[in-house]
């Protein structure tokens, strides 16, 4: 029974976070900013004010597909945010520009996360192979290797947290100091950014819980030797 509850929890936590961000975004996507600027215009304004004239703002595809690409120096905004005038779109656009500012300033956690990408990808793709081999053959060494590989992915998830929170903090500072949002809009924008942040918190929490479960299994395997 506890096994079923565990898997329900790790499945429901991310679903809850995704539902929260979608509902919050949907609510504040109906609230227009008093500035009347589109997400593209806001992103461009913040970039220019910070001297990042080489960073492009382009229209992406899909719903909430917004991201910053450090390789191409591009802020990609989903269609609704790119063309829209909402508080939600402003918050998301500013958040992605926050990543561009981090990149320009060589923000330590962002650099560390970029360096971890290949290691985390290998760990995520390969860890379960060694974990399954170790579990079925009772080879603790193989199982431990799987845990170590998975731990690389967990570290990546944890490092992502300060990167995302810092980008949101920069976003709020920029849109408030530049007068892009005013009064009640500031509180609405914070709600959008906080909801988005919870998706990363949920992903990190699930990753840590799963890693701890595997460590407990490993210690149990050792006790049987």
Automatic annotation (TrEMBL):
Transmembrane annotation, as ranges: 115-136, 143-163, 197-219
UniProt keyword terms in alphabetical order: Membrane, Transmembrane, Transmembrane helix
InterPro entries from the UniProt entry: Zn_peptidase_2 (IPR007395)
Name of this protein: Zinc metallopeptidase
Species name: Rossellomorea oryzaecorticis
Lineage of producing organism: Bacteria, Bacillati, Bacillota, Bacilli, Bacillales
């Amino acid at each position: 029974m506890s096994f079923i509850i565990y898997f329900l929890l790790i499945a429901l936590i991310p679903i809850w976070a995704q539902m929260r961000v979608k509902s919050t975004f949907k609510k504040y996507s109906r609230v227009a900013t008093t500035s009347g600027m589109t997400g593209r215009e806001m992103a461009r304004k913040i970039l220019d004010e910070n001297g990042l004239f080489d960073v492009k703002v382009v229209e992406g595809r899909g719903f909430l597909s917004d991201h910053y690409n450090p390789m191409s120096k591009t802020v990609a905004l989903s269609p609704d945010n790119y063309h829209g005038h909402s508080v939600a779109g402003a918050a998301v656009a500013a958040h992605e520009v926050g990543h561009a500012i981090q990149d320009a300033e060589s923000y330590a956690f962002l650099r560390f996360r970029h360096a971890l990408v290949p290691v985390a990808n290998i760990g995520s793709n390969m860890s379960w192979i060694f974990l399954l081999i170790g579990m079925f053959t009772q080879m603790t060494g193989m199982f431990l290797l799987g845990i170590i590989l998975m731990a690389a992915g967990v570290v990546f998830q944890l490092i992502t947290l300060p990167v995302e929170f810092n980008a949101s903090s920069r976003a709020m500072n920029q849109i408030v100091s530049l007068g892009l949002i005013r009064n009640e809009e500031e509180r609405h924008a914070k709600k959008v950014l906080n909801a988005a942040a919870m998706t990363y918190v949920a992903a990190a929490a699930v990753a840590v819980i799963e890693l701890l479960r595997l460590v407990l299994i490993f210690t149990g395997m050792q006790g049987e030797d």
